[in-house]
Structures are given as C-alpha cells and as structure tokens.
# Entry
Amino acid sequence: MIGKNIYEIRKRKGLTLTEVADRAGIAKSYLSNIERSINKNPSINVIEKIAKVLDIDVRLLLNSSIEEKPLQLDEEWVDFARELKESGVEKEQFEEYKTLLEFIKWKKEHEENH
# Structure
C-alpha cells in the first residue's frame, strides 16, 4: 500500500526514482524495494523523508485508498488559476514567485510555532 502510493504520487509529480531517493537521502534500491512492496514496512523516519520530497502530508502515503479519493480542489483556487491563465500568465512565470511563496510559508509556520 505505502509503496504503491509513493510510486503513484512520484509519477504524478514527474519525479524519477533516483531524484526522490537522492533528495530523501536514502538508497535508490531501498526506495525501489518500498515501491515494489518488497519492503512493506519502512520506518516512519523514511516515510517522512519521502513525504517531504514529494511535498505531501505523511498521511497521504499511509492512506490505503489513494486511488479511490479524487483530488478535491478549492473552487476559489481553480477560479484564480483560470483567471491567471486567461490574463496571459504562463505556468513558467510562477517560478518567479516561488521564493516569495516559500517565505510566506516559512513566516506562517514561524508565527504558529511562537
């Protein structure tokens, strides 16, 4: 279950086995064994590392019915994305704002922890 979820999410995000393993600091063969359910019980530490690389909540990897639950999109965000596209903003332009978004996320987390 965990391995299949990792595989599905990794593929959806366009990441290779090597990319995920390297970023998570685990062996490629170990990740492959997890994905193929040869290793069915990786440690929570490994699961957390993989979830961080995939930029998802750990609970999503542990979910047994990942395929049964369609992705729920907030309608406001869908409308916002549609407006941006209609105004001529390309996906590539979002990269320019990535640093700003990371700072906002960091600031929010920092405020919540203090």
The domain at 2-62 is CATH 1.10.260.40 (434 Repressor (Amino-terminal Domain)). The helical segments are 2-12, 17-24, 28-35, 44-54, 58-62, 75-86, 98-113. The chain has two domains: 2-62, 75-113. The CA atoms of residues 1 and 65 lie 9 Å apart.
